[in-house]
Please model this.
Amino acid sequence: MHKTIVFLSLLVLTSCTTSAQVDTQADTRAVGFNLERLDTLDRDDFNDMRQYYGACLVRLSFAATPLYDYDESNFRWRRNQANFQLLEQKLLETQRAGLVVIVDPHRVFGSSNIFTLTHKSKFWQNPQHSKAWSDAVADLADFLEKRPYHDHIWGIDLINEPGAFAWRQKQGMKEGNPDRYLKTDINVVYQEMIRKIRQQNKSHRLIIMFFEEDFKDGTVKSPDYYLSQLPIEDRTSAKSKLYFSSHIYWPNIFTFQGLQGRKAGIVWPDQPAYATEKNLDKRMGWITSWQSKHGVNDDHIFIGEWGLTQGSNLAWNGNTQNPSNGGRQWMDQVHRHIRKYHWTVHQYGGNPMLNINIPTARRQYISDLIRDSSPRSDCVANNYGF
Model:
C-alpha cells in the first residue's frame, strides 16, 4: 500500500549516467521529488516514489533541519551532528529504494529566511557570511565524496535562491544606501565555492542558482568564468559537471495564493493584469537567450523548483475561485518551456509531508507528468547498479 505524497517537488533531471560517463555522454532524463521535511519520511515513502510514481531521483533539502549551526556574531560554524546523521540515514534509505539524490543544504548563513536568501539578508551586507558558507559547503562536499556510496549522489546545490541583483540594488536605493546589499558579489562567491569544493570533490555535479532576471540583465556569466580559479587541466571535467538553475513561481501572487495567509481566489490567466501568459513566456525566454549567447546546452539547465500552492480550491481544479482550471493551465504552460531541461515541481503542502488530502486529479496529473518525462522506468538501476 502506498501513501499519498504532498509533492514538495517533483524533480526531473536529464541524467542517470555515472560520473565517469558524464564527460562523454549526453544526459538522460530522470525524474523525482524535492523533499524538505526529511524527518517525516521513511524508506516506505522512498519506495513509493520509486515504484509507484516511477521516480529516479530526489532532492534532499535541509531547510527545516540545517546541516550546520552558525553564529552570526563571529561567523563561526560547526556540523549539526543530529542532522548529519539524518542525512546519512536518508542517503542509505534512498539508495536502498533505487533512487539517486541531490543534496541541498538550503539554509544559507546570514539569511533572514530559512527557505530563501532574500534580497534583504545579512548575507549581502558582509562577505564574511559568504566566506563561512563556502567553507561549510566545501566541508559537506568532502563528507559526501568520502561516503562509500558517493556515486549514488547526483550533485550538490550550492546556494538556494540568492536574491536577484536588480532586487538588491532597488532595495538599497529605496533605503538611501545603494550599495548596502551589493557588498557580496554572487559570481565571486560561486567562483570561490567551486574552487574550494573541487580541491576535495571532483565527482559530483555542482548546481548554481539565479533568478530569471539575472539571466536577462547580464548578471549570469559564462560557465568558463565560474571555473577560472581551477587549474587549467581540471576545467573541462568541471565544466561538464556545472549546472545553471532557476526557480519559476512567477507570478507569485498566483502560485503562492493561500499560503501563510496570502490572498486566495487569484485566477490564471485572467488576473492580475500584468501576469499574462505572454509575459510568463517572455520571462522563461530570458534563460534561453542566455544559453544562446554562451553556448550552453539544454542538458545543463536545471529548473530547480516550479509549482503552486496545494489545495483543490487554490489555483488548481475548476471551481468558483478558479473557473478556468488555472493551476493546470499554468503548469502546462511552464512545462512546455522546460520539458527539455532538468526541472523540479514544487507544490506547497505544509506539515506533515504525507497527506491523503491531495485531490485525485492533481495526484494523477503529477504521476502522469513524471512517467511522461522519464524515457525508461529502470534508468537508475541500469546506470548505478543498485
